[in-house]
Write a structure and sequence with these properties.
heterodimer, A: alpha/beta, five-stranded parallel β-sheet, about 30% helix, B: alpha/beta, 11 helices, 5 strands, about 10% strand
């Protein structure tokens, strides 16, 4: 019964969520009839869902290629989210070509963290913060401060190993033409930081991990969009800038960027990602 | 900043399931429902267009992170106009607004209206099936829908088919609650008989979300009615309801506009 971004972003966006599986899964709208055999199925996290994008890349690709599609992008999702929901895997298998956005290694259960319902929330399993549940970014920040740099390094190694396993399990469960889609501000490995800080999305995922996951797939589509971005978020009613990132939920965010998207692909980035995905699908004769 | 409260309205043809749908929506713990304020007070020519004043006159205080929900029908075009005025003014005041349009076969609604007029309503204005009563029903329905097509686009929109809601209440109600935006609560569909709060009294006795099958009666009705432009438009409105599953809300309001507004 997720509604997440629809509430947080309510002043600026109406994602027109619609629901399947007795309200358990909310999908990016507008609502559509589920195609029995969609040409393209997209899985991934908030970038695929299209947070802050009126026209996310999955819908653009399908429209330009004039094919049917399903956007199963779920905010905060990691591979486990799909593996734990066989009906979602069935929906993916109903498609002809699968485009799997490479998801964050932050969103897998391993080491000291267990993922919550949508994978974006982590629970501490041991130590001084045992039982505490936090958004992944905050959880890793606290891990570093309360448990120390060694614990953080251990944790990163644990989730990286687990990410390869669960991504592999997800791909093994989906024996169809699958592309891995790298959606990031940075090229592979440039998303990492030497000091073990979070780096860029997909967090902690290395080029080597992606190469290992890519074995047996149709390949990797590099959608690095690189440029710095500050997408203004405006109130749909007043037309004025909207402080989507409020003090209550985002106490540490600098005041100057409370009404800017500085993290997710902007609408222009979605255009770019769509163009790259489409180009590859055309080149390989899938659309 | 606190979340502002929202104002969401639901409009449908009379006897299209608006009361039961409103009952489910208003059963949400953060929704304050007002059922047919303009219809109930029509004798006083009630036209309040300020949401604060309207809420107060129904003993509701608008509160942050809650929503005021108003349900009306197209029984009188004045009800629809007043509801759209209310939404419009609220939006000008910075209140997030939304409009839910409920669709059901207009012929089923008409048959049900005749039945209700015979058995339930004090005002016996439509107690028999005839071209004349159908024409009145169709005119009010189409005029109301015309107002929605003309003036409803300034608000967040959700179109919903009553049969689809009956067939899949959890998913459909979850989708509707997204316009508030609030999480669906399972208690919304756990219907217990309750005191009438306006609208169709039978809807408050219902413990199940169900759809009466009137298809045979509708076929007979269509054989009896004299063809004409309003019958044709009502057929199209019925088709729009059946095809909602294949349309986006933006597509649905475009289709509605094509049906109810004059071509030139």
């Amino acid at each position: 019964m997720g509604i997440g971004y629809q509430i947080v972003d309510r002043r600026a966006f109406d994602y027109q969520l619609w629901y399947i599986a007795d309200g358990e899964i909310s999908l990016r709208g507008p609502k559509k009839t589920l195609p029995k055999a969609p040409d393209l199925v997209f899985t991934g996290a908030a970038q695929t869902f299209g947070r802050f994008a009126p026209d996310p890349f999955p819908s653009q690709v399908a429209r330009m290629a004039e094919v049917s599609y399903l956007n199963l992008g779920i905010s905060g999702a990691g591979p486990e989210y799909y593996l734990q929901r066989p009906f979602l895997l069935d929906m993916v298998r109903s498609g002809r070509v699968h485009l799997l956005q490479l998801m964050s290694a932050r969103s897998v259960s391993a080491g000291i963290f267990k993922c919550g319902r949508n994978n974006g929330v982590l629970e501490f399993l041991s130590g001084p913060l045992k039982g505490e549940k936090l958004l992944a970014a905050n959880a890793y920040r606290k891990l570093r401060h309360k448990y120390g740099a060694d614990a953080l390094a251990e944790q990163v190694a644990a989730v990286q190993a687990r990410w390869v396993e669960v991504t592999g399990e997800m791909l093994a469960a989906l024996p169809m033409t699958t592309y891995l889609v790298w959606v990031s501000t940075a090229e592979m490995d440039a998303n990492l930081r030497d000091d073990l800080s979070m780096g860029d999305f997909p967090h902690f995922v290395t080029a080597e991990m992606v190469e290992r996951a890519a074995a047996g797939t149709a390949g990797i589509i590099d959608c690095t969009f690189g440029a710095a971005y500050h997408q203004p978020l405006t109130d749909q009613i007043s037309g004025e800038m909207a402080d989507i990132f409020d003090h209550q939920q985002f106490p540490g965010r600098p005041e100057a960027i409370r009404s800017f998207n500085t993290y997710y692909p902007s609408p222009a980035h979605h255009d770019l990602i769509a163009a790259r995905v489409l180009r590859r699908l055309v080149k390989d004769g899938h659309v | 900043m606190d979340d502002p409260y929202a104002l969401i309205a639901l409009i449908g043809l009379p006897r299209s399931g608006t009361t039961l749908t409103a009952r489910m929506i208003a059963a949400h713990s953060k929704v304050d429902g007002i059922v047919e304020p303009y219809h109930v007070r029509r004798g006083d020519n009630y036209r309040e267009d300020d949401v604060h004043a309207l809420a107060q006159s129904f003993d509701i205080t608008p509160k942050p992170a809650r929503a005021i929900f108003v349900k009306e029908t197209t029984t009188r075009v004045a009800n629809v106009d007043a509801t759209l005025d209310l939404l419009h003014k609220a939006r000008q005041q910075g209140v997030p607004t939304g409009l839910i349009v409920l669709l059901r076969s207009p012929f089923e609604c008409y048959l049900s209206q005749v039945e209700a007029s015979q058995k339930m309503w004090k005002q016996k204005s439509m107690t028999s099936i005839s071209d004349e009563t159908f024409a009145r029903f169709a005119r009010a329905s189409l005029d109301g829908m015309q107002q929605i097509a003309r003036r409803g686009r300034g608000h967040r929109l959700r179109f919903v088919s009553y049969p689809a809601l009956c067939a899949d209440p959890t998913n459909e109600l979850s989708r509707l609650m997204g316009i508030f935006p609030m999480r669906f609560e399972p208690t919304q569909i756990a219907l217990e008989p309750t005191k009438s709060a306006g609208g169709d009294p039978k809807a408050y006795a219902k413990q199940r979300i169900e759809l009466s099958d009137r298809s045979a009666d509708v076929e007979a009705l269509l054989d009896d009615l004299s063809p004409g432009p309003d019958v044709a438009k009502m057929r199209k409105l019925g088709r729009l309801g059946r095809e909602l599953a294949t349309l986006t809300d933006a597509g649905a309001v475009d289709r509605l506009t094509d049906i109810v507004l004059p071509a030139r």
